[in-house]
Design brief:
Largest sheet: 8 strands, parallel, barrel
Strand content: 15-25%
Shape: globular
Oligomer: single chain
Structural class: alpha/beta
CATH topology: TIM Barrel
Number of helices: 6
CATH class: Alpha Beta
Helix content: 10-25%
Number of strands: 8
CATH superfamily: Aldolase class I
CATH architecture: Alpha-Beta Barrel
Distance between the termini: 14 Å
Order of helices and strands: EHEEHEHEEHEHEH
């Protein structure tokens, strides 16, 4: 099982996630979000030895100017939550990034939208339609979401429900609010992160037994 943790702070959270071998570390660039990263903080990321982890810039319709001025050389992936087309994804990839395309699911028919981006994007992320609210994807839609290394599931995932998602066949999960301190959006709880990764390790060990 692979894990992406989103909404990280460059000072508080990065070294812990690298040490815990989290696959993808996400940093939010969305001004309406309590997890929004200041552009001036990007330079701090260069201080880390990422080892086997990768940095992800989480964006909404980023312009070429924004990408070239702030993201090039600092991030491995760009996660796209806007109205980007396949053509736009290809343009961004040519700037030197891998692409995660987010699909917001409000109705079951929304799931099929991934087929438009499957070839262009490196990863497809399925998320609830709640944006900054912590809501899971409706149970009635879960069975229709594809599984596999290319597909990532998000939406109110935490230590309490990870085993259920694993049993359902999901092996790439994206977390954010489920690892934050109570009533304090944007601040990760390191004890929750450690506990979650411990459970991931247990699942991985049992998978290969």
């Amino acid at each position: 099982m692979k894990i992406k943790i989103c909404g990280l702070n460059p000072i508080r959270d990065v070294q812990l996630c690298i040490d815990l071998r989290v696959s993808l570390l996400g940093f939010v660039f969305y001004k309406k979000s309590p997890r929004n990263l200041l552009l001036s903080d990007i330079k701090m990321l260069s201080n880390y030895d990422k080892k086997n982890s990768s940095f992800v810039a989480v964006t909404v319709n980023p312009s070429n100017e924004f990408i070239k001025s702030n993201l090039v050389g600092n991030f491995d992936f760009i996660q796209l939550h806007g109205s980007e087309t396949r053509k736009r994804i290809t343009e961004i990839k040519k700037m030197g990034f891998k692409i995660i395309k987010a699909i917001k699911i409000k109705e079951e028919k929304d799931i099929k939208a991934y087929k438009d981006f499957e070839e262009a994007a490196d990863l497809i992320l399925f998320d609830s339609n709640s944006m900054e609210k912590s809501e899971s994807i409706s149970k009635e839609f879960i069975s229709s979401i594809p599984r596999g290394d290319k597909f990532v599931l998000a939406g109110a995932i935490n230590s309490e429900n990870i085993i259920n998602y694993s049993k359902l066949g999901f092996d790439f999960l994206d977390l954010s609010s489920g690892l934050e301190k109570e009533n304090l959006k944007g601040y990760k709880d390191h004890s929750k992160i450690k506990d979650f990764i411990r459970k991931v390790s247990e699942i991985n060990e049992n998978t290969f037994v």
